[in-house]
Every structure is written in structure tokens, then in C-alpha cells.
Design brief:
The chain is an all-alpha fold and 156 residues long. It has 5 helices and no strands. The longest helix has 31 residues. It is elongated. The N and C termini lie far apart (67 Å).
Length: 156
């Protein structure tokens, strides 16, 4: 029969054993919002080109870019809910960005319906104005959201 002798005792702190599941990096929805904003900006560019050169190819590019932006906006909304549920750090305050982004997506949805009509008048002037308005809303949303996040009493 063998005997074991304990010569040294070590205590392990419980805090070292727990996994700290803190999400790292940028929330996923921010990346998807950037993609949808890029698609919407691309639609404005192709609308401007279609205004100057009325070739139906540019109008088709516009509607495809708007639809791709709307799909990415839907994925961004899903990712935002997942980020909230997962406890990721969301910018404070989030409401200006959410309101502005929802407004831009609704305007883009209207723009998709306008672009689906037939002919040159489907894009010029209504579709072109809506595409420009979406970009203005997105730029104002980014500016206001950043200003509020950096304000000492509100977010930063």
C-alpha cells in the first residue's frame, strides 16, 4: 500500500476559473448598416448617371442597389436584436441612429416602388430626389449620433 504525501497547498481563486464572455470588437449590426448605406449611396450615383444618360441599364443598377441595401438593412435589424440580446455594447444614445436609419430604410422602400415603375419618369425626378434624401438622412443621422455620443453629459 502506497501513501501520498501533500507537501504544498495551493488555493485557486474562483474568479480565475470563470469564463469572462465579453464580446469583443464592433457590434455586427454596425458593419451591416455600413453596407446598406454604401448600397444606397451607389443607387444615388447610378440615378445621377441615369439622369444624364437615359440608358435603362443604369435604372436597373439603381433598383438592384436599392434592393441590396434593403436586404442588408433587414439583416442589420436582425443583428441589432442579436447584439442587444447578447449584451454587446451599443452606442449611447442609440435612439437618434435608430430613428434616422428607420427613416432612411422607409424612404428607400418607397424608392424601390418608385423605381419599379416603367420609363424615365420612374427615376427622374422622384426616384432621384428620394435617393438623395436617403443619403441626406443617413449623413444627418451619423452626424447627430456622433455629436450626441461625444457630448460629455449624454454619451461620452
Amino acid at each position: 500500500m502506497k501513501h501520498a504525501t501533500i507537501t504544498e497547498t495551493a488555493f485557486v481563486n474562483d474568479a480565475n476559473l470563470r469564463l469572462l464572455a465579453k464580446p469583443r470588437g464592433r457590434p455586427i449590426h454596425k458593419m451591416l448598416v455600413s453596407f446598406s448605406a454604401a448600397y444606397f449611396a451607389g443607387a444615388l450615383v447610378t440615378d445621377l448617371v441615369y439622369w444624364q444618360m437615359p440608358n435603362v441599364l443604369w435604372e436597373r443598377f439603381s433598383i438592384w442597389l436599392i434592393v441590396a441595401g434593403l436586404i442588408m438593412a433587414g439583416l442589420a435589424a436582425i443583428a441589432y436584436v442579436i447584439d442587444l440580446a447578447g449584451g454587446r455594447q451599443i452606442d449611447t444614445p442609440a435612439w437618434p441612429r435608430v430613428v434616422g436609419y428607420v427613416l432612411a430604410v422607409l424612404l428607400s422602400l418607397m424608392n424601390a416602388f418608385i423605381h419599379s415603375r416603367d420609363g424615365y419618369t420612374a427615376v427622374v425626378p422622384t426616384g432621384l430626389m428620394l435617393s438623395g434624401l436617403v443619403i441626406v438622412v443617413l449623413l444627418l443621422t451619423a452626424w447627430v449620433g456622433t455629436a450626441l455620443a461625444n457630448h460629455p453629459r449624454v454619451g461620452g
